[in-house]
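hey m, so remember when u said the tokens were messed up on ur end? i reran from scratch. heres the input so u can diff it against urs
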Amino acid sequence: MKMITAIIKPFKLDDVREALHDLEINGLTVTDVKGYGRQKGHTEMYRGAEYVIDFLPKIKIEVAIEASKVDSAIETIINSAQTGKIGDGKIFVTPIEQTIRIRTGESGVEAL
């Protein structure tokens, strides 16, 4: 089993969720996060004053899936989240040692 963590632009969340659903990947966790990479923030004007916005709003998606679905899930996330502009995000893949469903006590792939 693997954990895919993707940091994407907020307006791409629905596209990614629908694309993963089409792959029959139904469970995911979404968190509002802020950060920066090469974008290094930007400046905005508010009531005539210029402000530097260091951290940009992003969405973090976490999906626990079977190892056999990792490559197709990564490709799907890239295709649905990509705009071709700086700040599209990152994808991280980490191993999961154990998964347990609290309600039933199922473990392993059955718990996903």
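this time it looks ok to me. The domain at 2-111 is CATH 3.30.70.120 (Alpha-Beta Plaits). if urs says something different then somethings off w ur setup not the seq
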